Each structure stands twice: as C-alpha cells, then as structure tokens.
C-alpha cells in the first residue's frame, strides 16, 4: 500500500465521521424546537385558533420525523466511520506486516550461519590467545623487574631508622642477619707408616740421587 492510498483512506474516514457529526447536530437542532412548537400549539388552542394550531402540529411532527431521520443517519454514518476505521487499521497492519516480511526475507538471505559460527569461534580463540599472551607478558615483566636486596642495604636502612628512633640495633642486627657459612677447612691428610717395601724403594731412590 502506497502513502497515497493511506492518505486517501484517512480522508474517507474523516468524511464519514464529519457526516455523522453533522447528522447528529441536525437531529439535536430539530429536537430543540420541539418544546417551543408545543407551547405555541397550546397557546393557539387556548385562543381557539384551531387551523393555526393544526399547521403548527404538522410542523412539529415534521421536525420530530426529521430529528428521528437525522439520528438514524448519524447512527449509520458512525457505523460507516467505524467500519472504515477498522478497514484502514487492517490495511495499515497488513502493509506493516508485508514490509516486515520483506525485511525478514532479505535478512534471511543475507544470513550465513556457518560464517557466523566461524566468526564466533575465531573471536573466542583470539580472546584465549590474548589472555595467554598477556599472562606471559605479565610474568616476564614481573621476573625482569624483581629486585634483589642486599644485606648491607637492609642494615643501612634499619640503622638509619633505629638512629631516628634512638634504638640500639647492633646486637639485634647481628642476631637477625643469617650467619655466613664458615669455610670448611680441608681435612688433614692422614699419614700412615710406610711398609718395608716402600721403605726399600725410597732408599733406592735416595742412593740413585746421590750417585
């Protein structure tokens, strides 16, 4: 349905409602004259003017019939307006559903479930790779930026803080500092008395040196 058709339907609905309102207004106008005519007829009858009262009575009945007809026309016009409104609403709904159907068909043609699954899987894998790389990077940064603090630096800092606080820490530092491992002395060589054969060989070497 085109916009022109929608505008035409709206115009027809407006005209039907306007006609119903006009008919209802004419019916109310005719009914409004009823008490006046009744009063005039009664006055004419009191005066004995029967002929004039007769004419007024005919006018009153005509007005009443007109009011009744206008009410009926107003009812018919309102019913017609309601039917036109319902028809226009149905047409607009049908038009909207047709547009939605075309949009859904177009979206369905452009949808590729396999491609969507592949994309989601790639996205998941990329997130996992990034998390792994980020963890490795953080571990590398942590290990490369770790600082080894020497015992001398610790003693110096504690000494300054102790001086500021007026505390003697020399003995406490000595007790708190891990003792350096004492170098092990080489075990003394255990000498044993030479045997007779070794003594004989030693004497032979001495004689050879003296010769």
UniProtKB/TrEMBL annotation:
Fetch the Pfam families from UniProt. Snf7
Which regions form coiled coils? none
GO BP field? vacuolar transport
Q: Quick one: where's region Disordered?
A: 172-211
Compositional bias annotation for Low complexity:
176-192
Which PANTHER family does UniProt cross-reference here?
CHARGED MULTIVESICULAR BODY PROTEIN
Q: What's the protein here called? A: Vacuolar protein-sorting-associated protein 46
């Amino acid at each position: 349905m085109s916009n022109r058709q929608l505008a035409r339907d709206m115009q027809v609905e407006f005209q039907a409602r306007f006609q119903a309102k006009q008919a209802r207004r004419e019916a109310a106008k005719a009914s409004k004259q009823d008490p006046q005519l009744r009063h005039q007829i009664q006055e004419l009858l009191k005066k004995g003017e029967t002929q004039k009262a007769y004419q007024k009575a005919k006018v009153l009945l005509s007005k009443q019939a007109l009011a009744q007809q206008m009410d009926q026309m107003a009812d018919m016009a309102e019913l017609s307006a309601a039917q036109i409104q319902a028809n226009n609403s149905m047409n607009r709904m049908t038009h909207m559903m047709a547009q939605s159907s075309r949009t859904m068909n177009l979206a369905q043609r452009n949808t590729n479930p396999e491609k969507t699954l592949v994309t989601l899987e790639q996205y998941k894998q990329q997130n996992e790779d990034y998390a792994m790389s980020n963890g490795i990077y953080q571990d590398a940064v942590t290990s490369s930026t770790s600082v080894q603090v020497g015992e001398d630096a610790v003693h110096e800092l504690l000494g300054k803080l102790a001086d500021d606080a007026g505390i003697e820490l020399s003995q406490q530092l000595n007790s708190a500092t891990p003792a350096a491992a004492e170098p092990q002395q080489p075990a003394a060589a255990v000498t044993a008395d030479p045997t007779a054969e070794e003594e004989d060989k030693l004497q032979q070497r001495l004689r050879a040196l003296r010769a």
